[in-house]
DNA sequence: CTGTTAGCGCGTTCAT
DNA sequence: ATGAACGCGCTAACAG
């Protein structure tokens, strides 16, 4: 049972290979009788088409390359899932490359030169494999201009961006603006913010949203309510302690990720400040664990699936030579859980 | 700038395409002078090899197919990471297919017929693409015999198994045995267990480990200490309440996943039972959140990375026609954190 | 309209 | 170091 090919079929069915090809692809009319005969032989011989040979001639592979900086980072699987969803519907295939950035260079991803070589290799391999386009998934939104030269092949970035190419990134500013308005709608006016590191774009954009909400709703602007963390649990913990020690502490805190929110919860608990009765908390990222904490954290969910899907949509347009169009800045969604209440409220009547 | 091919190089360097090929692959000696000339032209023309054409002739693609039942399930990314690690070192490539099982059929994965069609399509596509082997990653360890016909291509299963093919699965029994001995070493003798659903193999294997430890250490065997949950938070919560209501409650509980352990913690907290002073808890899975809870959960870490890596090792052997050998039942590792103490201990001296 | 013949795509490799 | 056949399926040109 050596590989059965189109010519084996042809022979056994007493037709030419051309006819078999026409039957297989419906490229031309074939008399029903012959057609049936061919199909039967295909069945009998258990023929499996060889896309490699096909691709060589057609110079189409229906395959795109996905380069993920690190698949083990929480946001990546959902993005890949979105990519797969589109790929599935459009009969495309995914060649996955995992740069394993965290395992290789730790969190030093700010220094592009540390891993340029990995990225270049990945692209070279993918191009050799004749992918029709590339999607690059970052580990953290940042400018990766100059990291990759896709040699004219279409490329779309997501969860990061470049100055020259298309990138799909959720709307950070709107997200924190929405979160603030939710808090304001609950009656809060002294709202603190614990941001991530300020050298990160999401931090700045989310701060913009915060500031815009403060301004539009004419909240008292108090610099003491602005804290800059480093995304880590400990920083959320310490900064919350500082906020609680203020003469006039905030009634709510917008925390720029769920991990720091855990730290914030811990600080509050230790200080005997009850959440949400005495302090409300909104997190960011909708990490899985935020649903398991006590209280469950109200947080902004990132449209990861959609980012993957949109990336593929855009890439497909690019491959077809069309102008990509669509919503390339999908919105985050607030997940209401149990860490927010109106200020001064009591869940249990006294 | 149309695609530059081997013949463009040949022409520009005044050699035959054969020579270029020999230079490119080092398949044969080429006079250094010619060699240099060819290399220079390759550089100038920015030549990108075409692996498709190469594969057609060599009938080797250096590509394997990975079918994941659902990439968004917590264990999968690490497994894929392990696969990538091996692939990277051995210059292999990954064609990723995501069945998206949870999104398509929910948690009905027990009924294989629900998604046989998806799996079959995936395999057919992969075979057409001429992958040299397949790795199948399940969402939950179970028998998937008959789901897939790989038509003679090597296939390795992980995080699930079949009766006929090789599968890589961590050692469940040993894991719970180890966890028990850890607890016993801390001085516990009344140890309860909250298992997952009993129609799941891991549940049974882990129960075996529990039972073996009870027997070997001659612990009192009390059926009241055996509770069967359903992997969900709520069941961990309720079963722990039952355990705490016993006349003689356990001093420690082995919980078969971290999610139920969260429920257990919650029940203990509400009952005013302090962890770990009055009740010790060991979880399973080392989910990310188990490090963020308070107290942090001591839990068994699954060797996911290694499962991916070993799967690739085994598959590679199979592809080469060798007999695969190696450790195909890697061990779990206990992650000591803060949810276990000796019974009757006090962290704070009274 | 149906079926066949033969050349092609791109790189590899054997015989010269 | 080279010419040419080859891998496998597609498709233009041609024949009946």
The radius of gyration of chain A is 27 Å
- Look at the structure and give the mean pLDDT of chain A: 95
What order do the strands of the largest sheet of chain A run in, or round the barrel if closed? 7-6-8-9-10-11
Tally of separate domains of chain A: 3
The CATH class of the largest domain in chain A is identified as: Alpha Beta
Distance between the termini of chain A: 82 Å
* CATH-level-2 architecture of the largest domain in chain A: 3-Layer(aba) Sandwich
Q: What proportion strand of chain A?
A: 5-15%
Q: Helix and strand string of chain A, N-terminal first?
A: HHHHEHEHHEEEHEHEHEHEEHE
Shape of chain A: elongated
Biggest sheet of chain A, open or closed, and with what strands and sense?
6 strands, mixed
> What structural class should be given to the helix and strand makeup of chain A?
alpha/beta
* Share in helix of chain A: 40-55%
Total helical segments of chain A:
12
| Strand segment count of chain A | 11
């Amino acid at each position: 049972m050596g590989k059965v090919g189109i010519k084996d079929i042809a022979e056994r069915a007493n037709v030419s290979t051309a006819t078999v090809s026409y039957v297989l692809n419906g490229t031309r009319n074939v008399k029903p009788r012959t057609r049936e005969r061919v199909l039967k032989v295909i069945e009998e011989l258990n023929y499996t088409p060889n896309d490699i040979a096909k691709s060589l001639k057609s110079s189409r592979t229906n395959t795109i390359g996905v380069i993920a900086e690190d698949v083990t980072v929480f946001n990546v699987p959902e993005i890949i899932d979105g990519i797969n969803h589109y790929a599935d519907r459009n009969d495309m295939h995914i060649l996955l490359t995992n740069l394993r950035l965290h395992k290789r260079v730790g969190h030093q991803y700010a220094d592009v030169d540390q891993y340029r070589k990995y990225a270049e290799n990945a692209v070279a391999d993918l191009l050799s494999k004749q992918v029709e386009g590339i999607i690059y998934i970052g580990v953290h939104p940042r400018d990766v201009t100059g990291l990759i030269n896709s040699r004219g092949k279409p490329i779309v970035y997501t969860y990061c961006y470049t100055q020259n190419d298309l990138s799909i990134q959720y709307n950070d500013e709107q997200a924190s603006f929405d979160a603030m308005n939710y808090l304001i709608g609950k009656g809060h006016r002294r709202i603190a913010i614990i941001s991530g590191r300020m050298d990160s774009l999401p931090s700045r954009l989310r701060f913009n949203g915060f500031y815009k909400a403060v301004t539009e709703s004419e909240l008292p602007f108090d610099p003491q309510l602005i804290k800059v963390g480093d995304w880590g649990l400990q920083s959320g913990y310490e900064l919350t302690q500082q906020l609680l020690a203020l003469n006039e502490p905030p009634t709510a805190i917008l925390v720029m990720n769920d991990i720091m929110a855990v730290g914030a919860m811990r600080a509050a608990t230790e200080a005997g400040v009850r959440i949400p009765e005495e302090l409300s908390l909104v997190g960011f990222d909708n990490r899985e664990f935020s649903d398991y904490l006590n209280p469950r954290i109200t947080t902004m969910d990132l449209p990861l699936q959609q980012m993957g899907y949109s990336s593929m949509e855009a890439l497909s347009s690019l491959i077809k030579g069309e102008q990509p169009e669509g919503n390339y800045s999908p919105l985050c969604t607030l997940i209401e859980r149990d860490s927010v209440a109106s200020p001064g409220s009591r869940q249990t009547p006294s």
